[in-house]
Amino acid sequence: MTEPGRTLHLVDPETLPLFDVLGRGAPFTRETLPAIREASAAQYAAIGQPVIEPVIERVASSGGKIDVLWYDPAPGAKDRPALLHIHGGGMILGSARAMMAGPAGMAAALGIPVASVDYRLAPETPFPGPQEDCLAGLRWLADNADRLGVDATRIGVIGESAGGGLAAATAQMARDTGGPALAAQILVYPMIDHRTGGDACPYGNRTTGEFIWTRAYNQFGWEALRGDYAVDDARKGWFSPSLADDLAGLPPTWIGTGSLDLFFDENLDYARRLVDAGVPVELHSYPGGIHAFNIVADAGIAKAFSRDMLGAIARMLKISERP
């Protein structure tokens, strides 16, 4: 059953089954978080085995070794583009091991390898730990390009929700710290502005954020990630990408968001600022789309989203032949 809501009439009706999967649950607190994580992991486990089984690589990061899951649709092939995938979960949920269907499906659909980084979660690991893990995953991919059969000049970073925010942060960190250079950033309704939903929120949209990922959830996730970071130094864009003073020099960008998603305004603002900084941007807004709308794969807007995103990746990474 769907739940009643002030903006329910605006939601694309084909995506209403999403409420049965990701309906509003218990409020996020430090006490409820373990149970919410367990329930979330069980939901993803029910999806079954990924279409491509990953190889687990151990990669050095600032807090020790992390896992990177390597999905290769054609082991032994050479000179291919590749993606670094960063999973979502509000900075506080999920894992690369639990959320294998997305990156495995991308690797199969595009015919290119995908590396999915199992970054540490907040609040146990606050900023900059998760971001450092993602950058370590990117550097591992670039450093091992020859062994993996990857063209290091055609690596893109992709993530959804919190993963989109971490992808945007990874792109900024790579730019600011000497690489690796990225050919593209694919930002799927990215979580990029820590002010959204709080007292300092610069957006006053009356129809966004009622469902799935709310303002209260968002503020809990960001506060968990922030820890004791004062958000007052040159790393502020690495923490919350919307705060970066300068977006010049970032890679060509694709952004897809739902018109009812809490992140709609911050995503459009980021796209505008990227264009102003001279970065090529492809921007899509899907009408009636709430957060994570594309999970309902048979919905028309989900099909449009997949077509647009996969087509953009193929163009941006110069994939000559798609299966």
Q: Can you give a write-up of this model?
A:
The chain has 323 residues and is α/β, with parallel strands linked by helices. It is globular. It has helices at residues 18-22, 33-45, 101-110, 129-143, 145-148, 162-176, 215-226, 236-239, 264-276, 300-316, and strands at residues 55-61, 64-71, 80-86, 114-117, 150-160, 184-188, 253-258, 281-286. Strands 1-2-4-3-5-6-7-8 form an 8-stranded mixed beta sheet, sandwiched between helices. The protein contains 10 helices and 8 strands.
Explain the layout of strands and helices:
Layout: H1 18-22, H2 33-45, E1 55-61, E2 64-71, E3 80-86, H3 101-110, E4 114-117, H4 129-143, H5 145-148, E5 150-160, H6 162-176, E6 184-188, H7 215-226, H8 236-239, E7 253-258, H9 264-276, E8 281-286, H10 300-316
Parallel strand pairs: 3-4, 3-5, 5-6, 6-7, 7-8
Antiparallel strand pairs: 1-2, 2-4
Helix pairs in contact: 4-6
Question: What would a concise description of this structure say?
Answer:
With 323 residues, this protein is α/β, with parallel strands linked by helices. The chain is built from ten helices and eight strands.
